């Protein structure tokens, strides 16, 4: 179907939660472990890059 999933992560390790080697899953990990610190521009950059 080509449906993508964008997942935001704080303390949880994204590599442990999303399937490996699947371009349909986009993980964004907070560098401070706080979801509120993930900038909208970073999310859009990841989405547009895919």
List keywords for this structure.
single chain, 28% helix, alpha+beta, 2 strands
Explain this structure:
The protein is of the alpha+beta class and 50 residues long. The protein has one domain. The chain contains two helices and two strands. It has a two-stranded parallel ribbon with strand order 1-2. The longest helix is centred in the C-terminal third of the chain and has 10 residues. The radius of gyration is 11 Å and the shape is flat. The two termini are 16 Å apart.
Blueprint of the fold:
Blueprint: E1 5-9, H1 14-17, E2 25-29, H2 40-49
Parallel strand pairs: 1-2
Task: Describe the structure concisely for a colleague.
With 50 residues, this protein is of the alpha+beta class. It is 28% helix and 20% strand. It contains 2 helices and 2 strands, in the order E-H-E-H.
């Amino acid at each position: 179907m080509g449906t993508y999933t964008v997942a935001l992560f704080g303390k949880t390790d994204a590599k442990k939660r999303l399937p490996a080697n699947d371009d349909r899953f986009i993980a964004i990990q907070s560098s401070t472990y706080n979801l509120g610190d993930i900038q909208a521009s970073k999310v859009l950059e990841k989405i547009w890059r895919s």
